[in-house]
Amino acid sequence: RRLEVEVADDTTFSGLRFPALEELRLSGEAVEISDLLSLLAAAPRLTSLEINGDAAVNAPLGVSPRTSALCPHGVSLRTALHSLAICSDAVTPQTLDLLLSISPNLTELIVEQSDQLPSGVVLGLLAARGPWDRLSDLQLLSQASFAVLDPEDELVDALCSAIDVCPALARKFCRCLLGFCALSLFCMFFIF
Question: Which range (12-16, 46-50, 149-153, 159-163) has the least confidence?
């Protein structure tokens, strides 16, 4: 049900099927997968994919779920992915876009420390691929995460666009905002 791989390339998985695999962790710079769609098609029950430590996991350029040889007659590949975590500089925006396009049931998306996937890009891809009815956990951590945001910042616009297509996140955001407002009123009451 679980597999953690620290050394692999496309030939490692060639011709193999993983019908019971639910969790896959690809870690380290010795992982170089260029045909991610084939790997995903071989693991139809995969619910959790984690890409760490500069693992280079990508899809061939110009390949989409509909143009892949794995998807004859225009039938789209869909994954069972619920959780996707990326902590690798070697994953491209095109690969994240492909993963989002074939994973409509995501409940958790984590992108950390990726120069190729800054928060604005991830939020833009989420907004473009929405709606995300089940996405309730979004964690984006980059150098920009520690900066104070200006309300006119493009990142704020991207966040608002992503929240618009993620109802569960919108509810969490509203609860958080209401909690912050209640705390502020409570503090003001006791200060004055």
Answer: 149-153
Contact 110, 139 (CB under 8 A): yes
Strands (E), the chain: 2-5, 8-9, 23-27, 31-33, 48-52, 56-57, 83-87, 108-112, 137-141
Q: Are 42 and 20 in contact (CB under 8 A)?
A: no
* Model confidence, pTM: 0.80
Q: CA-CA distances (angstroms) from residue 171 to 114, 117, 177?
A: 27, 25, 10
- In the sheet where 48-52 sits, what is the strand order? 2-5, 23-27, 48-52, 83-87, 108-112, 137-141
How big is the CA angle at 174 (ends 189 and 98), to the nearest 5 degrees?
A: 150
Q: Map tokens 């604005």 to a residue.
A: 120
Contacts of 151 (CB under 8 A, 6+ apart): none
Half-sphere exposure of 182 (CA within 13 A, CB side): 6
**Token pair listed for 115:** 């120069």
Answer whether residue 187 shows pLDDT above 90: no
Is 126 a residue whose pLDDT tops 80? yes
Count helices and strands (H / E) in the chain. 6, 9
Q: What is the pLDDT of residues 37-46, one digit of tens each?
A: 889 989 999 9
